[in-house]
């Protein structure tokens, strides 16, 4: 009986954020595009994977703290992506190649993780149905 039409809007937003986070993890773990062409850090992969797990848990349990937990995990992941990708962004702004890396792919990670973070924050402020 849990069709998509009966789900609450926060659950749908959390699912969309989870898909973005999962795509970011898969791309980041396989593409090697961060600074000096290294993969995502283990903490980043664990943070985004835990956020996806929280979104899956939301399908089965309706706890009020799940959107907030997902927002915290995705915000931490977004911060880590900015921290690890900042040298690549600065190299592009200064038009030099000091750290290396793939700028378009790093910006894709930044945009996808920001969108996932924003969706999960919006899900925190939606009203729950009784």
Structurally, the number of domains stands at: 1
Oligomer: single chain
How much is the average pLDDT?
Answer: 84
How are helices and strands ordered from N to C?
Answer: HHHH
Q: Structural class per helix/strand content? A: mainly alpha
How many angstroms separate the termini? 17 Å
> What percentage of residues falls in helices of 4 or more residues?
over 70%
Largest sheet: none
- Give the overall shape, derived from the CA principal axes: elongated
Number of helices: 4
According to DSSP, the number of beta strands is 0
Report the portion of residues in β strands. under 5%
Runs with pLDDT <50, length 5+?
1-5
What is the CA-atom radius of gyration, in angstroms? 16 Å
How would you characterize the overall build of this protein?
- With about 130 residues, this protein is mostly helical.
- It has one domain (about 10-125).
- The protein contains four helices and no strands.
- It has helices spanning about 10-30, 40-60, 65-95, 105-125.
- Residues about 1-5 have low confidence and may be disordered.
List its traits.
130 residues; mainly alpha; 4 helices; disordered N terminus
Layout of helices and strands, plus pairs?
Elements: H1 9-31, H2 42-60, H3 66-94, H4 103-124
Helix pairs in contact: 1-2, 1-4, 2-3, 3-4
Brief digest:
With 130 residues, this protein is an all-alpha fold. The protein has helices at 9-31, 42-60, 66-94, 103-124.
């Amino acid at each position: 009986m849990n069709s998509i039409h009966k789900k609450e809007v926060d659950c749908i937003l959390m699912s969309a954020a989870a898909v973005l986070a999962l795509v970011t993890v898969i791309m980041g773990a396989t593409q090697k595009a961060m600074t000096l062409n290294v993969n995502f850090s283990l903490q980043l992969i664990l943070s985004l994977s835990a956020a996806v797990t929280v979104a899956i848990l939301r399908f089965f349990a309706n706890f009020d703290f799940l959107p907030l937990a997902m927002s915290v995990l995705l915000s931490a992941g977004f911060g880590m992506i900015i921290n690890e990708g900042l040298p690549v962004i600065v190299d592009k702004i200064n038009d030099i190649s000091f750290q290396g890396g793939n700028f378009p792919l790093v910006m894709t990670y930044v945009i996808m993780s920001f969108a996932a973070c924003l969706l999960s924050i919006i899900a925190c402020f939606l009203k729950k149905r009784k």
